[in-house]
Amino acid sequence: MRVMKPSESGFTLVEIAIVLLIVGVLLGYTVALLPKQQELKKYREADQEMDQIIGAIVGFAQVNGRLPCPAIPNTAGDEDGGGGADCNNFGGFVPLNTLGLTGRTNADSLMLDPWGNPYRYYVTDNDFNAAGGSDFVRSGEMRVVGLVDSNIDNYTDLDGGYVICDRADATLDDICDAPAVEVFGNAPVTGGPYGGAPFVLISHGKNWNDAPPAGDELVNFGANLTNDATLAMGLGPSGNQYRLKDAGGGETTFVRRTTGFADDFDDIVKWGSPNLLFSKMIDAGQLP
Hints:
Structural class: alpha+beta
Strand order of the largest sheet: 1-2-5-7
Helix content: 25-40%
Strand content: 5-15%
Number of helices: 5
Shape: elongated
């Protein structure tokens, strides 16, 4: 009687080689994309953190009737000035203790973005009536100035001072000169409206190293080592001084461009919407 042998099955060396080749290709794509995926995760994290910071700033204004001043390295996370006086520095860092925030900090109690760099925070020093001090940081001053338009060059008397452009221009002043175009706000011109952001929040992204950047990021970097010639801002992560725009000395323009891997511009720039800020303060009874 003939015994039938079960048919033998398996993979040939050629088939195994093809499978290994496919696995290798897929693994290569995965490894190549992993750094970009990690960077995208950091951008999403920074975006969420900055939204939380802006929410805390607006909440502070609802409670206190003013915006908080920036922190500086020697204030341990507290705002520097404000309340009964102007800010000592209108450009600085997030006052996380004043806002009741938690997060990554460095030795100077400065709140860090996902790349380990301090978030920059700028609040406007605009003073409409030129008597009571900065409209946005002195207690009750926003209510005194109010939202009634008494100047035909303004949307309201309570104006933010910061302009956001889509690129740098030649002058680096508070006007987006061609070919730059305003993303938000515009500088005052005779017979024309004016509106600007009351505060700006910046993450300088991955390529920040406390050294001058190139291109449009230079606008957000600032021309001065400090925002006050009499105040040393201390040392940044690389041992150089923290760099800030001179917010109280005319450096009122920022650049916000779409972040992408094909572009070396990686600053994340957000600002306080006056409409949102004012509506929230009206809801809280801080503005009429």
